């Protein structure tokens, strides 16, 4: 005789197998061959921007782009087993990993620390791929000791003015926006850092790719010279950036 516990396990297993079949069929029907080929030929940290965003758009249309997000922001509501099966089947089918900088690094920060206006402004554009993000953390003198960063962010009334340099900013030359750690108080080390976001087309933002011996590189130097950032692009409290970055 089958116990209630065994019956529950059989039902769950059956649902998971059905889900796995659904994912496989979706991939067979919707994963283009040129994306699989581009993923297989990629030798960089992330797959090429166009390939990643094309696949992201396909998944977003299905509602499967951000299984890690909560339902209210566009997540799937999947169980851990379903998330694992989806990831496994995508890997086996040759699908690319979506670029995590906006989807998995910035988005949770905005959900946790952003205002309702910021959530409404940034999250849909991260999900759709309209905003392709880069990370402005490391500096020439602040890598492993990140809290020693020196990029200055000064209060100029209705806006901040940022001056400094970031390095190893992956794909900054391709990014639309940057999320960035800046120094807003020089009197304290960890407690003087803030978290801001800004458009890479802002006057004073310059990127220079760092060429490796291969002739190509995902890495860039980013120079910030009198970059004006509206104060509503501060995420979380002023001088609260270190807690957010952690």
Kindly report the average pLDDT value: 93
Poorly predicted parts:
none
Count the helices. How many? 7
Radius of gyration: 21 Å
Strand content: 15-25%
One letter per element, helices H and strands E, the order comes to HHHHHHEEEEEEEEH
Approximate shape: globular
Briefly note the structural class of the backbone: alpha+beta
Helix % is 25-40%
**Biggest sheet features:** 4 strands, mixed
What distance separates the N and C termini?
A: 52 Å
Count the beta strands. Answer: 8
Strand numbers in spatial order across the main sheet? 1-4-5-8
TL;DR?
By secondary structure, the protein is of the alpha+beta class. The chain has 7 helices and 8 strands, in the order H-H-H-H-H-H-E-E-E-E-E-E-E-E-H.
From the structure above, extract its key features.
globular; four-stranded mixed β-sheet; alpha+beta; four-stranded antiparallel β-sheet; 246 residues
Describe this structure in words.
- By secondary structure, this protein is α+β, with helices and mostly antiparallel strands.
- The protein is 39% helix and 20% strand.
- It contains 7 helices and 8 strands.
- The chain has helices at 4-30, 33-40, 49-62, 80-93, 100-113, 116-128, 241-245; strands spanning 133-136, 152-155, 159-167, 177-183, 193-199, 205-209, 220-230, 234-235.
- It has a 4-stranded mixed beta sheet with strand order 1-4-5-8.
- Helix 1 (4-30) runs parallel beside helix 4 and helix 5 (100-113) packs antiparallel against helix 6 (116-128).
- The longest helix is centred in the first third of the chain and has 27 residues, at 4-30.
- It is globular.
- The relative contact order is 0.11.
- The mean pLDDT is 93.
């Amino acid at each position: 005789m089958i116990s209630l516990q065994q019956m529950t396990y059989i039902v769950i297993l059956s649902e998971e197998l059905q889900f796995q079949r659904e994912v496989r069929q979706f991939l067979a029907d919707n994963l283009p061959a040129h994306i699989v080929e581009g993923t297989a030929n990629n030798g960089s940290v992330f797959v090429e921007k166009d390939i990643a965003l094309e696949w992201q758009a396909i998944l977003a249309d299905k509602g499967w782009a951000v299984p890690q997000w909560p339902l209210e922001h566009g997540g799937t509501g999947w169980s851990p087993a379903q998330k694992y099966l989806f990831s496994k089947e995508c890997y086996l089918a040759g699908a690319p990993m979506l670029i995590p900088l906006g989807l998995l690094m910035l988005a949770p920060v905005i959900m946790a620390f952003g205002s309702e206006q910021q959530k409404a402004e940034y999250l849909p554009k991260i999900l759709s791929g309209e905003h392709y993000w880069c990370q402005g953390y490391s500096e020439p003198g602040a890598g492993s000791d990140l809290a020693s960063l020196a990029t200055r962010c000064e209060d100029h009334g209705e806006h901040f003015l940022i001056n400094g340099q970031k390095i190893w900013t992956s794909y900054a030359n391709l990014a639309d926006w940057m999320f960035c750690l800046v120094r807003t108080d020089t009197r304290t080390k960890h407690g003087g850092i803030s978290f801001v976001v800004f458009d890479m087309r802002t006057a004073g933002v310059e990127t220079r790719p760092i060429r490796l011996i291969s002739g190509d590189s995902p890495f860039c130097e980013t120079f910030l010279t009198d970059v004006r950032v509206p104060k509503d692009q501060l995420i979380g409290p002023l001088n609260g950036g270190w807690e957010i970055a952690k």
